[in-house]
Design brief:
Blueprint lengths: L3 H7 L1 E9 L6 E4 H13 L3 E16 L2 E14 L2 E16 L2 E11 L6 H10 L1
Length: about 130
């Protein structure tokens, strides 16, 4: 069996980026920089449950590039405390000789003053 982290690496181009932008400063990581700390939480038994699901998406494809804007929900248990959130992910894809791969992914979570509903309403008005 292929380790999970190798499956995640295979989804991205070699120099792909993951950008967690839920606070005042973006956390920009390579694929390995993103996987490492999360795998350590699992290995230490600190992160005992995690689930993420795409609720809706809009994808635009042009030749060998694509962009997908997704609404997601996530839930889990870390340090014995449950958490859950919803947000939006912006993902860029490139078509490579090995097939479609992600080149960059950036996301933000809902919080007071930032809701998915208001973002979707403003997009519909444009």
């Amino acid at each position: 069996a292929v380790p999970k982290e190798e499956k995640y690496r295979a989804l991205f181009i070699e120099r792909g980026l993951l950008i967690k932008n839920v606070g005042s400063t973006p956390e920009i990581s390579s694929v390995d920089e993103f996987i490492g700390p999360r795998q350590a939480l699992v290995d230490a038994g600190t992160l005992t449950r995690f689930h993420e699901a795409e609720l809706s998406e809009t994808t635009v494809l042009f030749g060998n590039v694509a962009h997908r804007f997704s609404v997601y929900e996530k839930a889990g248990t870390q340090g014995g405390k449950p958490f859950e959130a919803k947000g939006m992910i912006s993902t860029q894809f490139v078509n490579t000789p090995a097939g479609w791969r992600m080149s960059a992914m950036a996301w933000d979570d809902e919080r007071p003053g930032l809701s998915i509903a208001s973002a979707q309403n403003s997009a519909a008005q444009e």
